[in-house]
Specification:
Elements lengths: L2 H12 L23 E6 L5 H13 L10 E6 L6 H15 L7 H9 L2 E5 L3 H17 L3 E7 L5 H8 L3 H22 L2 E7 L25 H6 E9 L8 H5 L3 E7 L7 E8 L2 E4 L1
Helix pairs in contact: 3-4, 5-7, 6-7
Length: 283
């Protein structure tokens, strides 16, 4: 690469927006993810993880006039579960609430929001590795591309274990390579990553240096290369329904998110939300 080309890439990288304010209600004060940091969104099924990703995605692609950050997002769908109808419904609902009729047609603004979203699908760890290689071109050429969402990073865990046979290193080899490449992308392009991780109960003989989960049963189980990348963890759970209150209160499911960090701070935060037709609503 020529000197002028390298300077242009550097300038685009430095212009990438920091996402420490992506959702103040999730993270402790001034404790959101900085450039080059990874947030793992973990928890059992049906605890609001994907809805939380939709919320963060919408927050990024919405215009500033609607309370958004107006940055581009890359969504890597490994579960083939991305619901575009749901996502469009959430964006449209937020635009309707936030914008005045003079701000332009709903369809025009909605199209502008969706133009900031790029979606790719993967069906194996090998495809994920190739996808990350491919994405480097996008990160280098689009300074507005600030957020990478992966739903989920643990999608191929059992498949990789089966293909790896009795060798533990072989079982983790593919995800380790993905994590190492992702680490380089984080350093070189200063993006922010959010990735969901399914809860898998597994007994550990000891804690790694990067383990900062809130209980023994929620310790990380993915490879060390991935664990070393994670700087924040959002542990999602579902509150038990209460017998008291109105019928609406009893029917409305409340989800809880416990935020912890490995960046040297002791700050934690617990937030609650419920899911509406218009997306996540914090309580």
């Amino acid at each position: 690469m020529s000197e002028s080309g390298a300077q242009q890439v550097l300038a685009r990288t430095e212009a990438r927006r920091c996402l420490t304010d992506i959702e103040p209600r999730l993270f402790p004060g001034n404790g959101g993810p900085d450039h080059g940091e990874v947030v793992e969104v973990c928890g059992p099924e049906r605890t609001g993880k994907t809805e939380l990703l939709y919320h963060l995605l919408c927050r990024c692609v919405l215009p500033k006039s609607a309370g958004g950050l107006e940055v581009d997002v890359m969504f890597v769908d490994t579960d083939y579960s991305l619901d575009m109808f749901r996502l469009v419904s959430i964006i449209d609902s937020r635009l309707t609430r936030a914008l005045s009729p003079s701000a332009g047609s709903d369809e025009e603004v909605l199209r502008s929001c969706l133009s900031r979203l790029l979606v790719v699908h993967c069906s194996s760890s090998s495809q994920l590795l190739l996808t990350l290689h491919f994405l480097e071109n996008s990160f280098s050429s689009r300074p507005g591309l600030a957020l990478l969402l992966i739903d989920s990073i643990s999608a191929f865990y059992w498949l990789d274990r089966c293909e790896g046979g009795a060798s533990f290193s072989k079982q983790e080899e593919k995800l380790s390579k993905c994590s190492e490449l992702l680490g380089r992308l984080l350093r070189d392009y200063r993006i922010t990553v959010f990735a969901t991780c399914h809860a898998i109960r597994r007994i550990h003989s000891g804690l790694s240096s990067s383990s900062f989960s809130s209980s023994d049963s929620d310790r990380p189980y993915l490879c060390r290369s991935w664990q070393h990348l994670v700087t924040h963890r959002l542990l999602c759970s579902r509150q038990a329904s209460t017998a008291g209150g109105s019928k609406e209160q009893r029917m409305r499911q409340i989800f809880t998110v416990h935020c912890s960090s490995s960046t040297g701070t002791k700050a934690h935060r617990i937030s609650s939300f419920h899911v509406t037709d218009g997306g996540v609503d914090f309580t």
